[in-house]
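JOB MANIFEST
job_type = single_chain_structure
chain_count = 1
residues = 795
[input]
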Amino acid sequence: MNTFLGFGREHIERHYRKTGQCVYLHLKQHVIEKVPGASGGALPKRRNAKLFLDLETHSDLNSDDFEYEDEAKLVIFPDHYEISLPNIEELPALVTIACDALLSAKSPYRKQEPDSWEEELQASKHAKALVQLDNGVRIPPSGWKCSKCDLRENLWLNLTDGSVLCGKWFFDGSGGNGHAMEHYKETGYPLAVKLGTITPDGADVYSFDEEEPVLDPHIAKHLAHFGIDMLQMQVTENGLRDNDIKPRVSEWEVIQEAGVKLKPMYGPGYTGMKNLGNSCYLNAVMQAIFSIPEFQRAYVGNLPRIFDYSPLDPTQDFNTQMAKLGHGLLSGQYSKPPMKSELIEQVMKEEHKPQHNGISPRMFKAFISKGHPEFSSNRQQDAQEFFLHLINLVERNPVGSENPSDVFRFLVEERTQCCQSRKVRYTERVDYIMQLPVAMEAATNKDELIAYELKRREAEAARRPPPELVRAKIPFSACLQAFSEPNNVEDFWSSALQAKSAGVKTSRFASFPEYLVVQIKKFTFGLDWIPKKLDVSVDMPDFLDISHLRARGLQPGEEELPDIAPPIVIPDDPKGIYSLDIDESSVMQLAEMGFPLEACRKAVYYTGNLGAEVAFNWIIAHMEEPDFAEPLVIPAFGEVASSGAAAFGAVGLDNQPPEEMVAIIISMGFQRNLAIRALKATNNNLERALEWIFSHPELEEESEPALDMMDMENNANANILAETGSEGPRIKDGSGKYELFGFISHMGTSTMSGHYVCHLKKEGRWVIYNDLRVCASERPPKDLGYIYFYHRIPS
């Protein structure tokens, strides 16, 4: 009653012992089957008039067969004395007021996300009786253009007469010439659907008359009138399903294994996650993360210890939230099969009773996205960017002696050669993902692609349905070859010539990680700078050997470039520093990874145009800062650029905290090793380092030798090449042979839209994780993945 924190039955005793707080409000919600015919077709009714805590109801229970009964009571510890509510006679007035305030309070999630809750779409008043003209209009699934101008973006289909027109003032903020609105003013036809948003789950519909986005409960029927079969993602000339239609090959169908009856999976490790509104990227990544034994041991294996030492507000503790989520996914408590008797009853009665399966990661998402301009929104995000964001948080919040993110970390050796002097320079950097370019020029079905493109253009010109999709088939070996080939270094300054020259750079693995994460770089920018995705098929191998990419270091006969820094050019006019050039090619490379454009510009600027790789390390080190995505403000001549100074300290491998900061913490009575560990975990931020120490009290009790050993890895199968500190980053080197055990796939045209699904190999068979649905996979689409997870094969 003092903190507004909620606890389950198994954790309430721990909180009482830890805090001494003894008065708790116990809330319980009962779901009761209605008497047949009692509801009169209405939605479920509550037995109690008061809806306490604005509790979220299960969507499957919103039927005519169930109703709710709410129960509230005070519980006094340690004797578990219970007082039913309301009880005005026995309770003091202050306690009664406090209970009423708690029961009527809004959910904290609705407070955090007002836009997503207060702007829930309502069904349009025009939807039920919408008049549709029988004018023979059929809409192709692509190649649209405004019928009054040449715009091909932000197009809306009027659901009355089938006109395709551009928008202007719609809720999605995209531009246009307003022809859709003009058409409404001329005709009065009220509803339009945005082309490009139609999926089997629905579409964006706008009501001109009601002046807001709306729901159209009959959208499938309205689209079918114009030849669009929304549920099957197929357009036919008569608007009806054709039994002779060829097998479909769209991403949505193949990746989600549509059209195949999939067997549900239950038990530990087979728990689904609710989509909170464009949160499938988070669901897919976390399913993959918690399939890895090191993460299971670090968080779920240490769950009692993490919970015991959690701060007084566990909602703001990363390790607590990770342990909670991992337990939800791995315990099996939220993934139970229906009883056999229930199944028989459902078959006999031809009805479906709801199953309380899956978890809702609201608290985890609220914490992990706090302060991040993108992840804190309800927009779709890049799963690769979220993976790096998560790894950054794991690095900053170590749990015990094992840092699970070590399994992804590896060293990259970069060899830069001056083309004129032939001298070389070798540098190393830390990375977590192997990014493979898509070698489109190596497609094995070029003739088919050319023929398909001709047919597609003909169909577009004639407004006919397009031909069956032909997807470019790219050999994995070609992508690997493109990764290993030398790349030109833009604006290369040769220390041998002490002048700008041509330079090339090649990347090799200085170490191989325990788990190799491979990203296929499908996302790019079109000529109009609009993000798009390459719809390709890459024959990803089940077994991968990259031993030939092992770095070899300086070779006999090679001569190193002198260690001379380029001269600092101070302009005659100090204001000239404002016009400092920024390497836009590096900016766009980072933007293709999904990072905010302004953050990419700052990263390239603060790392002195040294290339995308160095700027990438800056992003990883600074993505938690509140101004991460704010526009770049270049300091005036003579000013101190604090971010720039911090940048160069963060990208090096010898990221030792400043000695003066260490001395300040030691003067407060803490051990030196603990001070260094806290500063490293918080990017050398003194204030945050002190908070980190106070939030990890268990580390103060450790002896100094134990702290010295805290960064040592205890995995017997790993060969530890280096440890934290001045010797370099912790890495687990070993063989370069791997086996595929999981992949994340994306459906849609860009990272800003679409849907993510995860496939994992468990107990010898593939399983598909599609938000709440967890099923045995029949046809895992390994060639259409976006991020792949490989595990090292023990030698």
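[summary]
DSSP finds 25 helices and 30 strands in the chain.
The chain has a mean pLDDT of 78.
exit_status = 0
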